[in-house]
Amino acid sequence: MKNQIKKIVISLWLLTGLASQVHSAPAMEVVVTIPPLHSLVQGVMGDTGKAILLIQNGTSPHDYQLKPSVRSLLLKAKIVFYIADNLEISLIKALDISPQKVRKVPMIHQRGVATFKLREDEDWEKHDHVDHSEGGDTSSSHHDHEEHHDEESTDDPHIWLNPTNAIVMIKAITRELSMIHPENRSLYKDNALSLISDIEAIEKEIETLLAPIKGIPFIVFHDAYQYFEKHYDLTAVGSIVPDPSRPTSVKRVKDLRRKVKESGAVCIFREPQFSNKLSILIADETKAKLATIDPIGADLKPGADLYPSMLMGMAHSLRSCLLP
Ligand SMILES: [Zn+2]
Question: How far is the CA of 82 from the centre of ligand 1 (A)?
Answer without folding.
Answer: 14
